[in-house]
Task: inverse folding
């Protein structure tokens, strides 16, 4: 009888210890990034529109005082070759904006994402994501085109577009 109960008791003890450790070590819940923003900002989507980064980085210019707004969703750009999808490029962007203007980015994110995606599709169709796509010149051309697309939407609030992640998956 003990031979049957002992393994069960050990399993339950281990399970209880694991659950207890998980509860004790979990991170504190963060406030929802869109808390306090109007519902129109999320456009019916339950995912947060954008998330301001708290850290201030002194890399160049006035980055010390600027706000950084990370666009919540990555951009996925197909690369077409010979009439078929040859690869997919995934980009994550952050915007360097004037202090206190994060709400402006939140409220204009849908049109901002649309214009930026158009630029990325044009860049892909021109061969910008082929070959050595992370070369300095190609990345500078893409960044400059993204700034030109975002400037009419955000105005002088926008200081820079930062490409924080980029990856290409060949198919």
Result:
């Amino acid at each position: 009888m003990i031979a049957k109960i002992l393994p069960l008791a050990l399993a339950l003890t281990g399970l209880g210890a694991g659950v207890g450790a998980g509860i004790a070590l979990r991170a504190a819940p963060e406030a929802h990034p869109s808390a306090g923003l109007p519902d129109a900002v999320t456009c019916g989507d339950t995912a947060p529109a954008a998330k301001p980064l708290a850290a201030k980085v002194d890399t160049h210019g006035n980055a010390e005082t600027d706000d950084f707004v990370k666009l919540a969703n990555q951009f996925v750009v197909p690369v077409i070759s010979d009439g078929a999808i040859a690869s997919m490029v995934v980009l994550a962007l952050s915007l360097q904006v004037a202090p206190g203007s994060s709400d402006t980015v939140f409220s204009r994110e849908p049109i901002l994402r649309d214009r930026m995606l158009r630029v990325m599709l044009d860049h892909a169709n021109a061969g910008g994501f082929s070959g050595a796509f992370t070369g300095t010149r190609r990345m500078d051309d893409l960044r400059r085109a993204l700034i030109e697309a975002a400037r009419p939407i955000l105005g002088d609030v926008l200081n820079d577009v930062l490409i924080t992640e980029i990856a290409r998956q060949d198919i």
User: Anything to note?
Assistant: The chain has one domain: 39-170. Confidence is low (pLDDT under 50) at residues 36-61.
